[in-house]
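Handout, section 4.2: multi-component inputs.
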Amino acid sequence: MDVVVFAKYVPTPEGTPELGPDHLLVRDGGDGALDPGDTYGLELGLRLVEAHGGEVTVVSMGPAGAIAAVQRALAMGAHRGVLVTDPALRGADALATARVLAACLRRRPADLVLAGIESTDGYTGTVPVTVAELLGIPSVTAVRAVEVVDGALRVERQTEEGADEVACPLPALLTVTAGATEPRFPSLKGIMGAKQKPVETLALADLGIDVEDVRPTQRVVAVADAPPPAGGEIVDAEVGIARIADLLVEAKVL
Amino acid sequence: MLRAARPIGPLDRPGARLRRELVQVLGQRKLFQKPIPGLMHALIFWGFVVLLPTIAEAAVAIVDPRARLPLLGDAPWFALAVDLFATGVVVGVAIALWIRKVQRPDRFRGSHLREADLILAWILGIVGTLLAWNATRIALGLAPHESSMPVSGALARLAGSAAEVPAAERALVWSHLLLVLGFLAYLPGSKHLHIITAAPNVLLSKTRPSGALQPLRIDLDAPEDEIRFGAGVATDLSRSQILDLFTCTECGRCQEVCPAWATGKPLSPKLLIMDLRDHVAAQAPAIGGGGDAGTVELQPLVPAAVEDEVVWDCVTCGACVQECPVDIEHVDTIVDLRRYLVMAESRFPPEAAPMLRGIEGPSENPWGQPAAERTAWAEGLEVRVLAPGDPPPEWLYWVGCAGAFDERARATTRSVARLLTASGVDWAILGPRERCTGDPARRLGHEFLFQNLAERNVETLGQAGVTKVVASCAHCFNTLANEYPDYGARLEVVHHTELLARLIAEGRLRPSRGAVGAVTYHDACYLGRHNGRYEAPREVLGTVATRTAEMPRSRERSFCCGAGGARMWMEEGGTARINDTRLAEAAATGADVVAVACPYCLVMLDDAARARGSGAPRVADVAVLLEEATRPA
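Output:
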């Protein structure tokens, strides 16, 4: 089973990202890393090929520095990497990103595509399902467990009430919830071995994509600071349990 | 086997090693950590040292009953010594049998008990035949110094005419010598081999502080087959580590003090060493005598010799090493096993991964908190944060990640800060430029991560021009003081309890006695046992407490809180929790307060106190108690 895992290079959540005059993120010099939200799907993909054979290809679109995210995924155990980087992609929106990723999959089809629920920087959560739509394959979101049965998938899907069990033919695209797996920490051998693994760096022309097709259809016109969060309430240990229960009722959780 | 193992470098500090040889081997110092078993062993050991020349005498006496040793054979004092020390051995064996048959301590569980019985019987046979042979020599007039041999003489009188039979004399000297030779032949395959290996093993054990691990110095640009990840197979162990295995006598002193074993976990340092020994011995044919280990497929040490859980149970408290009479270094070997599992196979308890990711990531601390948050504890306090290029302070306060991010440990940090300021000390912190020292990564086995942090921290400290560092966390203290010198640091490092004790002695802090009630002090492993800092925290507490009480296990025999060796970041198995066990011991002293000197101990013991509920003693750092007793100045 050949698996493709989408990997995004995101600014590290610990840092303070800097925005340029065009309201776009300044990518040079800032600290970046593989999006932690992508690692659950990667771990799931690695386990699937360990059990059923095949290879994991990690696919990323981003600035040249995004190679760090690809390397990290390779160090964790992915077999090969693809990085699409092109100056014309700066500021690409979710649809443009989905078009690029779909083109990668048309170029080299996979049995299964895995992605995170949403990126930890943009949070649109729309890219994976758009890719599935563009490719015309089924997609299942918020997946927390997968089993391969007779060449098809049996998928457990997280819902507000509990879980749905979904049967799904291959090829398919799944978005994987945080915590579905415990992503492995790369071994030093893995980090060293990652340097020897094949990585393709592609431009838009290599994928046969016209620059017009990835031009952003939206533009950020203003950015404002988020209001500081309300103070919260520190509950005293003595009266704690009752008060916490009240708060949960107030919040309509209970 | 030794030839195939990893060679060890040239021996440093020959003087210290020789002294240790005299004190520990000839003087039996570590054996006397347990007085009665120590006496038992010393009687047998000293006996055999003195009796060694008599083997030569017996060998010659086989052909010539009148033969005597040159020099010694004519000395009455030697005859007396042989007589008394041989008797001492008999007494020693009797004590040993009493310990094994009557007392039956739990430390022998898992040891080869029948083998021990056989060895004791053998020793008794050797010494018994010697005394009996001497008795017949006295009776037959063959002994030159009858008057100097009271015990043999008494035996001769007891036996009466039976001792005067020349054939009895012949039979005894023959059986004595055959027992000795048989014993020598039996020795190499037995756990008693320590009589050969103990002295060299003590010689080879490290002279570094016990808390300083040996660096691996990993260079990722080197060819892969030259990079060592720790111990994966038998031949990855060093010669000193292999010698450790074959020096173990299965006495179980380590097992008796191990916090993991005491709380029902599968790790026993003794069983670990025995399992590794049996594994290495079984792999010997595969290793081959020629030292050409590259040609055969060796089995992995984990899990072939030792199961995974055993490797992760260790808190690296060093109680086993402290106890071991023959200087086996269990902890360093366990860390070597971890190093291979983590760096080559990424195999470790998954719950420890966030800690590694935090240390590795841009935040560079196990909590994964932003570096900018490192000074959050200082809100409302006047704290100087060293910016690049600032003049260095006299003392750099190394806050540590726990002290910066853990809410309970922050109370300690704030107290230390206020006390330093109140006593007029010139101090500052690195603030966001401080990183994890790398201790948890190193103890978990990720030497590469540690190495990275060590190099960069040493660089930061060097650039800041810092020469004197005060640390709050016992683990930071140990790493800065004992491990960073390997990476070029030249620092005077003290723990905050030491600096505070100094400030009290100088009159710069004036606490009022009796401000905090009855206190018992819990020694942190990495301050106490690994670094010998026992006095300063007790001195400080002596100035503030109405009464101080010691726990049964304290100072170099203290019992870990359960968080060392990166256990802070792992789930705990077994039948009991280490922190609960320790807190119960502290509570039994009747103290109102359990004083600690390390944020890990604070978190572990305070968790245990909370679990215990009302009536549990309060857990607080020495600095917090001192500040309470010093307010208002």
